Amino acid sequence: MLGRVTPAADTHATSIGIEGQPSWPADGETSAMAEGSLLIAGVGGLGCAWAKAAHQRCSGNVDVALIDADERSLEGARHAHCLVLGDEPSAEGCAALPALAQARMRALLPVTEHFLAQAELVVLLTGLGGGSGSGAAQEFARQAAQAGSLVITIAAMPFEAQSVRCQIAEEALARLTKVSHVCVELSLDRMAWQARERGVDWQQGSAWIEELVEGLMTTLSAVGLINLDLMDLRAIVSKSGSATLLVAEGNCDDALDLYNRARAAPMAALSVGGASGCLLQVEGGPNMTMRQVADVADAFTDGLSDDAQVIFGARVTPELGDRMRVVAVVSGLPRGSADGLH
To answer: What's this model's pTM, rounded to 2 decimal places?
Structure first.
C-alpha cells in the first residue's frame, strides 16, 4: 500500500488468534455523535427524492433537510426540516431561473442558521440544470460552509441531449464547486445506462447514492471521538485539487471486485491515479480478517501518489456477515482550477 498510512480513531486494536482470525471488539462500544451533527440535505425535486431515500437507510441521529419550491418534493418525510422556496408553493418551481432560487434561498437564512449551527457534516444532494438545484443548492452550500460545516455535495448533471439544461448545469457546477469542500459530479447518462442494463427505470437506480450516504454517515456516527474523525476527513479534503467519493459492498474475499464495483459508480469519468489523500473506511462482519482488510486497503490505494496521506479505519457490523462495505474519500486529484473549499 502506497503512501503514509495514519490509523483513524475508529481503527480498533486487534489480536490475532490461532487460526489467523482477529479478535475484533464488539460493535457499539463507542458513543453516538450529538444530535443534529450530521445532516442530509436535498435541494430541488431530484435532490429531495434522493435525500428522503438516503435518510431512511441511516440511523436516527442523522437529520434531513428538504428544500424546493414545489411542496410535493417535501411530502413523505418524517422529522425533516422542510423549506419552501418562495412565499407560495408552486409546481412550476423556480421557472428554470437559478438567480431567483438563489435569492429565495438567501431569504431563508434566518431559518437555516438554526439547524446549520449544529451541523458538523452536510451531505448535499441535488440535480443541476433547473432553477432550484442550480441556484438554491449553491446558496445553501455557502450558508453551511459559512456556519462551519464540512460540505460534501453530490450534483447530478442533466442528460447530454438536454443542451439548454446542460449549459445551466455547467455554470451552476462551477459555482457549487467553489462553495463545497467536496463536489462530486454525477452523470445521469451513466446512471440511465446502468439502469437499462438492470432492466429498471433510471429514477429507481439511485441505490448507489443511498449506499454512499449511508456508508459515509455510518462511518462517522458509529464511532466515538467524532471530532477526531471529522478532523481526519477535513485533513483529506483540504488537499489541493479535486476530490471524489467511492463506495462498494461485496464479498470479503474479493478485494479487486469491491474496487471495480466502486469505480463503476455513475460518476463523471475521473481518474484517481496520483491522488495525494485518501480516507478509507472498511466495515465487515465479525469474521473479517486482517488479511481481508489489508487486501482491500491495497486495492483502493494502489496508484495513489507515493507520498499520499492515507487515513485508515475499520469497524465491525455483525449484520454484514461475510460481506464488506468500503467507503473512500479520495482527494488531491488534478482537475484544472475547479477546486473546492480548503
So the answer is: 0.81
pLDDT tens digits, one per residue of 53-109: 899 888 677 999 999 998 899 988 878 999 999 887 666 667 678 999 999 999 999
Gyration radius of the chain's alpha carbons = 20
Residues 6 and 310 sit within 8 Å (Cβ to Cβ): yes
Q: Which domains does the chain have, with CATH numbers?
A: 4-31+228-333 (3.30.1330.20), 38-215 (3.40.50.1440)
Q: What residues pair up with 41 in beta bridges, in sequence order?
A: 65, 124
Cell numbers found for residue 303: 496508484
List, in order, residues 6 or more apart from 26 with CB less than 8 Å away. Answer: 316
What digits encode the pLDDT tens for the residues 164-173? 999 999 999 9
From residue 289, alpha-carbon distances to 17, 18, 28, 32, 268 in Å are: 10, 12, 19, 25, 34
191 in Cβ contact with 206 (< 8 Å): yes
- In 91-225, alpha helices (H): 98-107, 109-116, 137-146, 163-178, 188-198, 207-221
Identity at 241, one-letter amino acid code: G
pLDDT (mean) for 34-63: 87
* CA pair distance 153, 139, nearest whole angstrom: 12
Task: Report the C-alpha gap between 91 and 88 in whole angstroms.
Answer: 10
Residue 37: phi, psi to the nearest 5? -75, -25
Name, of 88-97, 179-188, 200-209, 267-276, the range with top average pLDDT.
179-188
What pLDDT, on the 0 to 100 scale, is given for residue 21?
39
**Angle at which helices 137-146 and 109-116 pack, to 10 degrees?**
50
CA 29 to chain centre: 25
Which parts of 222-309 fold into alpha helices (H)? 226-237, 255-263, 290-301
Residue with cell 422556496: 85
